[in-house]
Amino acid sequence: MTVIVTGAAGAIGSACVDVFLAAGHRVLAQDLRTDAIGPRDNLTVVTGNLTEPADLERLSRAVDGPLDAVVAAHGVAGSAALENCTPEFVNRVLTVNWRTVPSLFKAVERQLSASYGIFVSVASQAALSGESENAAYCAAKFGVRAWSETQALVRADIAFRCICPGATESPLLIAAQRQFAEAEGVTQEEYYKARTRQISLGRYGKPSEIAASILYLSARGTRPRVLAVTGGDGLL
Amino acid sequence: MNARLSNRLTPPRSAPDAISAQSRKLIESAFVGTVVLFDFSADIAPDTWLESAAGRLIEHLRWNERETEATAVVALVPAQLAAEALPFAEAAVGALRGIVQSTTRERAHHTEPLNLVVGTAGDLDAVAETLKFLSDRGGAYVAGATLDLRVGRTHLQ
Question: Does A190 have pLDDT greater than 60?
Answer without folding.
Answer: yes
